[in-house]
Amino acid sequence: MSDADTKGNGDAIDPRLKAVYKDVTELVGIDHIRDELIRKLCDGNERSKDQLRTMSIVGFGGLGKTTLAKAVYDKIKVQFDSVAFVSVSRNPDMTKIFKKILYELDKSKYATINEAARDNEQLIDELRMFLQDKRYLIVIDDIWDEKAWELIKCAFTDNCLGSRVMTTTRIGSISKVCCSSGDDIIYQMKPLPDDESERLFYKRIFPQGSKCPDELEEVSRKILKKCGGVPLAIITIASILASNGQDQHIKPKYHWDNILGSIGRGLAEGDSAKDMQRILSFSYYDLPSHLKTCLLYLSIFPEDFEIRRDRLIWMWIAEGFVQGGEQETGLFELGESYFNELANRNLIQPVHFDATGKAQACRVHDMVLDLLCSLSSEQNFATILDGTQQSKSISHSKSRRLSFQNSMSEPTTNLVDATSFQVLRVLDLEGCDLGRNGHDVDLRCTRCGVTRWHREPDVLRRADWKIGGCERARATGQAESALSLLEWEE
């Protein structure tokens, strides 16, 4: 592999892509839809304006439901006393959801809410008490389960102060459950029209002010037809075709023709999820091998998780995925270029840009995460335990990375016999509330290379730990100091 291949084309995140995330409403043509939804959400006679009103945005994955909801939220949140934007996702831990809503509503008052030992009923009571005298705006993003919504809505009191709730979902029946009163609104998300699809596509590929060359117009139209007006598909394919930040030359027509032929039939009506996966998988297989590995590593993070850039890079380094630099500083800079290249290809979504234009964190779209989890399972790259899987679904002899993504509401030893993991290299406990229920955690492995915790060491101390048989243990982040707390058994 050449030096150029190793470094990638990721010296910086492409400013054209940063514009996609910093000024989304302009690029994907939702400004007029946003304003229409704001009118529906906020207008009405005096009586109806004061009543609690719910709006649900529904549509299949990749259409931009979250983007639209965020655009509405950002535009009107100054009109409310308290606001929150919280993602639910599949297999939600409802206790964490309620705590996150409280924290979003008042970050100062609820700064330590995650450490509080409260059940759902107590948290609902706390929310109702907090909201009773406030005009509030709350967005509940990505609902998959009616029961989750039925529980969440118990916290919303109608105090006749003009409060508003928004939800997003892929499932039509859930949007109807969310909008059960006469003043509630369901908005069916639609694909972008041809002109806005073209605008988004060209904005990502060509430098500002440049036009599409005549010889590429026909193949562009054919590619866009296969993208079906879905913003995620459009940006993903455009990111493959875009020139890198150093080389502004437009890629030759044969490259465009190859992509057109490789994405199959595109997004056919009635099987959008499967067809979207095909488009995303093409983007994955277009990566050099070192970036494939770094991208697959993101499968160990929960859905809708905000991943800090520096932490992710150090984790890649600890795993040995970043190689080529002579010193640690060089390795980190190389890891930064990997991060930027994945962002430039729209496989991760950069967020929180600092004054120098560097993204401080990233997210992974849930459809991309679905693909990564599927590939990870096929390749025995990582095993995810999120409360829906039991030990019978785990290949103990092949699992190299084990990630717990539940609250450990059941004892860990009931979920998995960790002594049988013969080739385990990574144990990931991010997001697990290890100390809440006072469980003993008994994990023995033969080669535990990297262990990471999200919790502070005092929380780890509340759980009884036994890790034995490890030839070596390397830790990232807070786990470095936490290792001294563990009881080692030979």
TrEMBL record:
Residues 35-208 form the NB-ARC domain. GO terms for molecular function: ADP binding. Residues 300-371 form the Disease resistance protein winged helix domain. Coiled coil: none annotated. Keywords: Plant defense, Repeat. SUPFAM superfamilies: P-loop containing nucleoside triphosphate hydrolases (SSF52540). GO terms for biological process: defense response to bacterium; innate immune response-activating signaling pathway; plant-type hypersensitive response. InterPro entries: Apaf_helical, Disease_R_plants, NB-ARC, P-loop_NTPase, WH-like_DNA-bd_sf, WHD_DRP. This is NB-ARC domain-containing protein.
